[in-house]
Amino acid sequence: MKKFALLIALCSAGLASASVSVSAPANGSTVSPTVQFVASASSSCSKGVSAMGIYTAPNQLVYTVPGAKLNTTLTLNPGVYNTVVEEWDNCGGASTTPIKITVGSGGNVSVTAPKANSSVSPTVQYVASATSSCAKGVSAMGIYTAPGQLAYTVQGAQLNTLLTLNPGVYNTVVQEWDNCGGSSTTPITITVGGGSTGGVFTNLHQQAGWTGYGLLPSLYNICTSCSPTGPQVSWSMTQKISSPSLSGNSSLMDIGGETVYSDVLWNNHLIGDFSSQGMPDYNHTIVPALHNFTYDVYFYVEDPSVSQAVEFDINQFVGGLSYIWGHECRIAGGNEWDIWDNPGQKWHPTGVPCNPLANSWNHLVLQVQRTSDNQILFQSITLNGVTATLNYYENPTPTTWYGVTINYQQDGNYQQTPYSVWLDKLNFSYSN
Predict the structure, then answer these.
(1) What is the pTM of this model?
(2) Domains in the chain and their CATH numbers?
(3) Residue 365: per-residue pLDDT
(4) Beta bridge partners of 204
(5) Is 415 exposed, middle or buried (0-12, 13-18, 19+ CB in 10 A)?
(6) Is the distance from CB of 291 to CB of 367 less than 8 angstroms?
(7) pLDDT tens per residue across span 385-412
(8) Mind giving me the DSSP string for 310-370?
């Protein structure tokens, strides 16, 4: 009876049991000067939680917010802090959770993709870089898709990856950790749209569907009289090469001939008309939904200097319009990436260097998009781990074709010097 009477007395006084759950920062963690606090509270008070707040030291209330949820960032000087997150309910009660943190040296995280508060497809590209005042530099970077949910990490101060997320709103965070025990973050809120159209073709260099064509100067139209055996321009594609190879099964691409500055184009129809991958899309339901494409390939060349250029293209034909994302690594004449201006029928210099390594595997990743208002967007070029963000727009041109295709091309130089390029791990992803 005494215990029951005491409980009645406490309830009459308006007191109630409550708790505070803090998901960030973690207790005992080392954080950057910009500290994200994420917490929620509950109470047995029938009137609910009134407000929440953060103390950075005894009697130093630095932040309050109405309601039972808290998500904010505080900027703190380096040092050790015995912070406290507190809730106050509408019955006159309160509860606290102590969080001890060490604020380390300062840093900065620059996120170029995705944009904050943007709407994105389920396949989301993250591109970011980091700096730190730590003399030992940045150790690693990572992406949190929710508090405490580290979805991706990479060593060093550069990050470029794709994450596949379900539809919804995400308060993501890109974080860097330095070699002095500090870190810094940049929050990026995104809305992931619905739809599940998307996929990836893997090891396309090993598969059927490739057709080679000779291109002669000066018009560089497909030469209908040219033969793979020459003499104007010669070419071949040999699959199942064991060395050099990364997968044990690379493809050897050869170019030669007698006509200087002649090129060879290899093309593969992936989705839509003449699909080599079993996706003809007769009802026209797949291709119109696709907006984001990634061309991911490794290539090996013994002596890049004998090549005029190597080219990697993504093409989408839909709604009577042709979207051409042409990327040319111009080796002769400046070692620079050019991108294709389809309306102007000319190459547009980007200022981005292209210096493929000799006798070594080079890793290339191209990110492009057909925008929601039907523009051609060149997003980024990543060669051997170095990303150049382009964000360059072009307009489409009319066409009667339908589908998605990719190209690979080798260009001959002023002597039409024969040379070989090996392709491996050629993957192509697509999403809405």
Answers:
(1) 0.59
(2) 2-103 (2.60.40.10), 111-192 (2.60.40.10), 198-431 (2.60.120.260)
(3) 96
(4) none
(5) exposed
(6) no
(7) 999 999 999 999 999 999 999 999 999 9
(8) EEEEEEEEETTEEEEEEEEEE-TTTSEEEEEETTTTEEEEEEEE--PPBTEEEEEEEEEEE
